[in-house]
Every structure is written in structure tokens, then in C-alpha cells.
Amino acid sequence: MKRTLITGITGQDGSYLAELLLDRGYKVYGLKRRTSTENYENIKHIRNDIEFISGDLADLSSLIQAVKLSKPDEVYNLGAQSFVADSWSQPLYTAEVTGLGALNMLEAVRQIKQDARFYQASSSEMFGKVIETPQTETTPFYPRSPYGVAKVYGHWITVNYRESFDIFACSGILFNHESPRRGIQFVTRKVTDAVARIKLGLQTELRLGNLDAKRDWGFAGDYVKAMWLMLQEEKPNDYVVATGKTHTVRELVEIAFTHVGLNWEDYVIQDPAFMRPAEVDLLLGDPQKAKKELGWEPKVSFEELIKMMVDHDMQKYGQNQ
Ligand code: NDP
Ligand code: GDR
């Protein structure tokens, strides 16, 4: 039986990845930080199948202990302060968890179990300011937020540990991916949640920031498969994981409202409070390398994704009525 250690197990990706690995017969260990109230919502259906280890990415000693206890064949480092907007109000914390956290996890692997395969959750936010499109594994990074800067550190320290210590370390440069388990602060879920509430008469308006930003949005359930595939390869490598299609926030809003028969312009208000100090205007990934080497392709289209999320939120609030 293969053994895995997942950081960020309570998050969107951690939950889908844990499902995938349990289905494949892995023994799954999840690093979980202490919280004052329980946050097992995303993994409540598989909670009893996971062995939780208490720890924090900012605390190397807890990660060393986690690797000792789990003796993993594969480590997936998904834990992070992952909300870009908050990285301006908490830049040092973001650097510590999202950037140095990757180093801490790598260091625990290096010290305790150097033959464990390692996945780092890198991000299209590292591309930031548009230098070229579509963005590939060789596009230069120009991050535009403290979060993006921290992820660039996480990416390069992963490459460096691979080259320095011969660790099987991969960096997946994943573009935005969403699902009904997406955190409520992120724009897709904020929109689909609000659409459901407006349709059911629980809310009257939706305040958003930049409607012109373009993102390459895919389905999280598809993307965790790419993470696993990377660690099954003969050699460690870095891969862009994306759909190869881009859409504006405006298009997202239009699809979501239209799906429940509403006109978005009657409800959406642009609010400067949700504009960012520096924006990433356009993300569009080229997933050719992942397709060719991993045989990976996204299955769910942008429109299907948004409708899936709206339907989920309609059901959630509908049941509570
Ligand atoms: P989420 O925000 O849903 O989950 C983040 C996870 O990290 C949660 O389990 C959270 O735990 C955990 N975490 C936060 N801080 C710490 C800490 N100090 N120590 C240990 N764990 C911590 O993110 P996603 O699932 O969406 O993303 C997974 C990873 O992929 C992240 O690293 C993200 O930056 C990256 N990424 C995401 C993309 C996306 O579009 N979703 C795209 C590219 C990269 P808790 O529940 O306690 O808060
Ligand atoms: P992002 O995702 O910053 O790309 O990071 P988010 O959904 O927060 O923003 C996407 C775009 O929408 C614009 N926007 C708004 N965003 C939010 N959250 N709220 C609003 O009201 C709003 N209005 C407009 C943003 O300005 C932005 O352009 C996500 C995270 O999952 C990261 O962890 C991950 O690394 C990247 O995706 C790839």
C-alpha cells in the first residue's frame, strides 16, 4: 500500500486529491493545523478514511514529525495562504506559509525521507504581468502580488532541491481551478453563491471588483489528477496545467446569472473595495506539455463548471429555505 502525506487537506484541492488517492488504494495522511472550530466541510465524506497529523507549514519541527509518522512515498504540498487579495494585508504571513512553507516541507523530506516524491502547488500567479501568451513552462515570471512572489520562491526552491539533492520534486504550475468546494472569497464561488441567494430572494446585489480580468478557469477535480500523474513519471519535471481558454470575470457573471434566468446587469455593482493594488490582467495557459507527457486533458468546460457551481449553491440554499 502506497502512503501519502497531503498538506492543505481541508482545502478545495486537498479534498479532491485525497479522494483520488483513496480510490487508488493509498494510505492517506493529512497535515491539519489547529483551528478553534472544526473545518472538515470539504472532507466530511472521507474524514474517517484519513489519518490526520497536527502541524503547520510555518513550524518545521511539526513537519519533520509528520514525515516521521507517515513515512510517505508521495508528499503533496498544497497548504498555503492562497487568497491573493489578502496577501497585501498579510504579506509577511503569506511569505512565511506560502513561500517558506514549501522550503520547510522540502527540508523535512530531505532530512527524514529523501526518496519521497514531492509535489509543489505552484501557480499561474507567478506569471503575473503579461510577458507572453499563452504562458508555458518557459515563460518568465513577473509576479504582481505578495502571494505571487511567495509562490515564485516556492517554485524555485523546489527546482533547487531537485537539482541539489536529487529529490524527485515536481512543480505543477496550475491555472485557476474551481468547484463547488471553492472558498467563498474567490470570484467564481462568490458569484455562484450570490446568484443562488439572489434567485432565492436572500440577497439583492453583488459587489465585485475588476470585471475585465481574464482567467484560464478549469475544474479542480480534473486538475488534481495532473498532480498525481506528475509523481508517477520516470523523471521529475515542471508542468503547466490549464485549459488553454480564457474568459473575463464579466463572462463568468453573465453565464452564472443567465443560468437561473436573471440579467446580471440588474444586480452587479462595481465596488473599488474589491480592486487590487496590482492586477494580473490576463492568464492563458498552454497545457501541451502535460498533454503530451502525462496524457492529461481537462474534461469539464468553463460553462459546465459555472453551471455545476450555481446548481450546487441553489441546492444548498434551496434546502435551507
Ligand atoms: P485552499 O485555500 O482551499 O486550501 C488551502 C489549504 O492550506 C487549507 O487546507 C488550509 O487549511 C491550509 N493551510 C493554510 N495555512 C496553513 C498553514 N500555515 N499550515 C498548514 N496548512 C495551512 O486552496 P486550494 O485548495 O484552492 O489550493 C491548493 C494549493 O494550490 C494552494 O497552495 C494554492 O495556493 C495553490 N493553487 C491553487 C490554485 C487554484 O486555482 N485553486 C491555482 C494554483 C495554485 P485551513 O483549512 O486550516 O485554512
Ligand atoms: P486569483 O482568484 O486571484 O486569480 O487567485 P480570484 O478568484 O480571487 O480572482 C480572480 C480575478 O477576479 C477578479 N475579481 C474578484 N476577485 C475576488 N476574489 N473577489 C471579487 O469581488 C472580484 N472582482 C473581480 C480579481 O481581481 C482577479 O482578477 C486564484 C487563487 O486560487 C490562487 O491561490 C491561485 O494561485 C490562482 O488562482 C491561480
UniProtKB/TrEMBL annotation:
CDD domains: GDP_MD_SDR_e
Record carries keyword NADP: yes
Cofactor annotation: NADP(+)
Pfam families reported in the protein's UniProt record: GDP_Man_Dehyd
BP GO annotations: 'de novo' GDP-L-fucose biosynthetic process
GO MF terms held by the record: GDP-mannose 4,6-dehydratase activity; NADP+ binding
Range of residues in the leader sequence: none
Enzyme Commission number(s) of this protein: 4.2.1.47
Catalytic activity: GDP-alpha-D-mannose = GDP-4-dehydro-alpha-D-rhamnose + H2O
UniProt keyword terms in alphabetical order: Lyase, NADP
Claim: Mitochondrion is one of the keywords in the record: no
InterPro entries per the UniProt record, alphabetical: GDP_Man_deHydtase (IPR006368), NAD(P)-bd_dom (IPR016040), NAD(P)-bd_dom_sf (IPR036291)
Residues covered by the NAD(P)-binding domain: 5-309
Family stated for the protein in its record: Belongs to the NAD(P)-dependent epimerase/dehydratase family. GDP-mannose 4,6-dehydratase subfamily.
Chain's role: Catalyzes the conversion of GDP-D-mannose to GDP-4-dehydro-6-deoxy-D-mannose.
Name of the protein in its database record: GDP-mannose 4,6-dehydratase
Gene that this sequence comes from: gmd
